[in-house]
Specification:
single chain; 126 residues; six-stranded antiparallel β-sheet; globular
Length: 126
């Protein structure tokens, strides 16, 4: 299939993996994510990649450049420009955080699946 066609809301809500790349193009990449209760992605920065997030389930705290915080919930979107440190933290005590993200340009190898955050951390360069 060229591109991606599907119910991104349904696919996001059904996803149980920390990260799964659904589509990788020359200029963008679509990824679904699931953060467990209290889990976070960890403070990271992409020097040349803008990132769009859409929350489908749950609530989260986005921390930008280690000093700006935003509480978001399902239906909210966040755009993180390149060169901005960011962390996403599942603030729910009972519910998984389900979201999708679009990287522009792509940030992960096509077809990447990390079932857990530990898998994702192990795959990052040291």
């Amino acid at each position: 299939m060229i591109g991606y066609v599907g119910s991104i809301e349904k696919q996001t809500l059904e996803n149980t993996y920390f990260r799964e790349v659904l589509f990788t193009g020359k200029h963008s990449q679509l990824v679904v994510m699931c953060l467990q209760v209290g889990e976070e992605i960890g403070d990271e920065v992409h020097p040349n990649v803008d990132q769009f997030f859409r929350i489908e389930q749950g609530e989260a705290r986005f921390v930008l450049n280690e000093n700006e915080e935003h509480l978001v919930r399902e239906g909210d979107a966040v755009v993180v420009p390149a060169q901005t440190y960011h962390n996403v933290i599942n603030t729910s005590k009972t519910e998984e955080l389900k979201l999708y993200t679009i990287y522009s340009p792509p940030n992960h190898p096509a077809g990447t699946i990390h079932k857990t955050k530990a898998e994702a951390d192990a795959a990052e360069p040291a």
